[in-house]
Amino acid sequence: MIDVLAPAEAIHAAPELGAVYLSAFGAPGYDEEPARAEEFATEQIPLHSQRDDFKLVVARDAGKLTGFAYGFTGHRGQWWSDRVAAAVSPELADEWIGGHFEVVELAVVVEAQRQGVGAELMAALMTDLPNRKALLTTFADDRPAPRLYRRMGWKVLVPDLGWDSALYGLNLGVPLGH
């Protein structure tokens, strides 16, 4: 079951979100430390929940949170937008960065991965957005997340930004999966 949480609900659910984050990104190959999951829950979620058009979708199985995805409208002057703008051509930055929907995280607990939960979360996240374009960064190498994004119609804009991350874009005027 997929639900959309309001910003206050996201902050209330932050400990559960942190546990999902740790399961997904603490796994081998990602190797995030527990302290990073704590920072995600106590600092990143509260900060990002205040951004324009914040949207968080969660997956639950028998009442237990099994995954989430979230983003917001990104603007120049924000850390990620400025970092990406500095790494791409001025033309690409002008076309894509500023007013875009910024997909920040997609995480699914290890035991629920490869069951379609990530695709359901992304489809729900990208529904009814006010933005014309969307952006995300993900691993530059071949992993499940980049494959999922490509299957859902995301295009590689820059294969490697210089920090082992690829930049993906999606024109929101085109239906997902096409």
How would you characterize this protein structure?
By secondary structure, the protein is of the alpha+beta class. It has a single domain (2-171), classed as Gcn5-related N-acetyltransferase (GNAT) (Aminopeptidase), CATH 3.40.630.30. It is 37% helix and 28% strand. The chain has 7 helices and 7 strands; from the N terminus they run βαααββααβαβαββ. It has a 7-stranded mixed sheet.
SSE blueprint and pairings:
Blueprint: E1 2-5, H1 7-12, H2 14-25, H3 34-48, E2 55-61, E3 64-74, H4 79-87, H5 90-96, E4 100-108, H6 117-125, E5 133-139, H7 144-151, E6 155-158, E7 165-171
Parallel strand pairs: 4-5
Antiparallel strand pairs: 1-2, 2-3, 3-4, 5-7, 6-7
Helix pairs in contact: 2-3
Task: Name some characteristics of this structure.
7 strands; Aminopeptidase; 178 residues; alpha+beta; globular; 7 helices
Mean pLDDT: 95
Distance between the termini: 24 Å
Strand content: 25-35%
CATH superfamily: Gcn5-related N-acetyltransferase (GNAT)
The spatial strand order of the largest sheet comes to 1-2-3-4-5-7-6
- Taken together, the total number of domains comes to 1
Shape: globular
- Give start-end ranges of low-pLDDT stretches: none
- By CATH reckoning, the class would read Alpha Beta
Count all strands and give the number.
7
CATH architecture tag: 3-Layer(aba) Sandwich
